[in-house]
Amino acid sequence: MNTKIWTVQSTEYPQSIINEVATFFQEGKVVAFPTETVYGLGADATNDEAVARIFEAKGRPSDNPLIVHVSMPEQMDEFADRGSPLAQQMIAAFAPGPISFILPVTETSMLSTRVTAGLSTVAVRIPSHPVARNLLESTQLPIAAPSANSSGKPSPTRAEHVLQDLQGRIAGVVDGGPTEEGIESTVVDCTGEVPIILRPGSITADQIRAVIGNVELDAGLTGVTSAPKSPGMKYTHYAPDAPLYLVEGEIKTLQVWIDRFQGEGKRVGVLTTVDSKADLIADAVLTCGQRGDIATVAKALYDTLRQFNEQNVDVILCETFPEDGAGAALMNRLRKAAGHSYLY
Ligand code: AMP
Ligand code: MG
Question: Whose C-alpha lies nearest to ligand 1, atom 9?
Answer without folding.
Answer: 232
